[in-house]
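Lab notebook, bench 4. The sequencing result for the construct came back, and we need a structural model before the next group meeting so we can plan mutations. Quick request posted to the team channel:

Model the 3D structure of this chain.
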Amino acid sequence: MMTATLRDLRNNFSKLEVLLGEGEAIQIEKRGQPIAVLTGLRTNQKATVPKPDFAARRKAIWGERVFTEEEVAAMRVAELEGEEG
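Done. Here's the predicted structure in token form:
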């Protein structure tokens, strides 16, 4: 296991990132005392985060509602009222 200081983590993260990508574990030390261990993700694990479905959220909130131009203009005016003061 490789060791690195907090300064290394701040200033040389790109080099440490390469090691993490290769599966290396890195022990982080502060003033000579270990405070954390960083490990890279295993290749058989998925590192993807599911993306939110904004269209489904919009449909759940508003349904098939379509705003008129007057309603949109009124909403914009209401939004700007709070920013002026």
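Strands lie at 2-5, 25-30, 33-39.
Will bring this to the meeting.
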